[in-house]
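Take a record.
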Amino acid sequence: MPNVQLFERASPSFASALSKRGHHIVYRANEANHCPGCGRSHWYIGRMSAECGFCGTAVPLAETARQEAIAPVTRPKNVMTSADQRQFPRMAAKGRKLKLLIDGSPTNFAVRNISEGGVMADQVADLVPGAKVHVRFEGGILVPAVVKWAENGLVGLAFIEPLLLDRSDQPRN
């Protein structure tokens, strides 16, 4: 009888320990990368992730990691922001939900207001000022953005390039 190796499934506590310490599978350029799904090493490389050519498992690129070395910037409490300081007028967007891609991983977030230059939304965990993210709109359009501030349960994102928003339903002065 040939030798048979037995492998046991990892316990749930092992998996939770990995997630607590931040274990993530990533594709590293110039290294031998084996698919966590099938073990093969044929990859289609994109801007944010690599996809296995055999089973379709997608893993983020190591080079797209968030930059967290920037210290959080808080705005002084006594300074009021006014519409005069804004480059673009805001449109209320309560109830609108979009996807935020952080290191290529999608996360739902609720939008409070939006303009051609950015969006204010409910805080998403682990966002720090200076982090680069992508906002995925309803049509699947990905828009690169930078986290400008995160405080009091809210986050402000600035789009890298201004958008063209449909303001046809808003009253004109």
Remarks:
- Residues 12-21 form the longest helix (10 residues).
- Strands lie at 43-45, 49-52, 58-60, 91-102, 105-114, 118-122, 132-136, 142-151, 154-159.
- The CA atoms of residues 34 and 40 lie 5 Å apart.
- Helices lie at 12-21.
